[in-house]
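Give me the 3D structure for Multisubunit sodium/proton antiporter, MrpG subunit.
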Amino acid sequence: MSWTGVLDVLGAVLLLLGSLFSLVAAIGVLRFPDLLTRMHAATKPQVLGLMLVAGGLSLELRDLSATALLVLVVVAQLATAPVSGHMVGRASFRAGQVRRDLLLVDELSGSQAAQEEPRGAP
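Predicted structure for Multisubunit sodium/proton antiporter, MrpG subunit (122 residues):
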């Protein structure tokens, strides 16, 4: 088997694994009970799935400009997904949309009681 055949097989495996991670993330978003666990399912496996798909696609295309664009997409996703997940979780906690009976550790309740700020738009 030549190197191109090996790269094609490896690229196909990465594409399949990445799509499987994205499918698991979508199922987790639909099946998990509350906002915080759904956010976890939407950020962690989805980012890993995107990285695997981008790696497989760059192995299949074998083009430097396409690989550079895919690296830029992955870096942007790695920079924005954790920050947006954190901000959504924090805002939902402040708005009272978190099921506190499912929390094992609640580190924000003490700091939230000390702050007297408005809760946002009605």
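The chain has one domain: 3-114. Let me know if you want a second pass.
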